Amino acid sequence: MIPEIRFVADAMLQSLAKWIRLLGYDCAAGDLFHGRALLEKAVAENRWVLTRNRRLPEEMPHILLARAEIHLVASEQLPGQLRELVDRFALDPVAFRFTRCLVCNEPLFPTTKSQVADLLPPSVLETKDRFWRCHSCGRVFWQGSHVHRSIQQLDYWLKPP
User: Fold this and answer.
1) Would you kindly state where each structural domain of the chain is located, as residue ranges?
2) Which of 79, 93, 101, 130 sees the fewest Cβ atoms within 10 Å?
3) Closest by alpha carbon to 158, among 99, 48, 78, 96?
4) What span, in angstroms and rounded, lies between the C-alpha atoms of 99 and 122?
5) pLDDT tens, position by position, 21-60
6) Position 87 pLDDT exceeds 80
7) CA 8 to CA 14: how far, in whole Å?
8) 3-state DSSP helix/strand/coil percent for the chain, to nearest 5?
9) How far apart are CA 56 and CA 63, in angstroms?
10) Taking CA 49 as the corner, what is the angle to CA 11 and CA 57, rounded to the nearest 5 degrees?
């Protein structure tokens, strides 16, 4: 089952957004998401705002703030930020890994090698058999060494203290 919680990360937290997507959670992000635009997107799409901007409540209209769910990210570094969100929102750090496009945030769907063969490097075509595709941006994903390194990094960051 796809996780129901959704986020929008402000422009300062785009790296965090990518790792949240890697965990399989919906996290909109981009250079345009700051201030009022950030809150408006959150309210319109029922998303939690992720920000490090402590002045946000002082700078935005109270009517908009009252409708937004905001989490002020306390950690300054990415590993701590991710750990903070996993704990705060009880995110499952394993069950949904690599089910969402890291670039455009859309769900990935299984596809066959024959359907994506013309998009693959020859070495991948020869060594991999399972592929996923983003219907939005067209990117193709497979379990390469980057997946294994990312999992190792996640396990290291999220291990109990």
Assistant:
1) 6-88, 108-158
2) 130
3) 78
4) 24
5) 999 999 999 888 888 889 999 999 999 999 999 888 787 8
6) yes
7) 10
8) 45, 15, 40
9) 13
10) 90
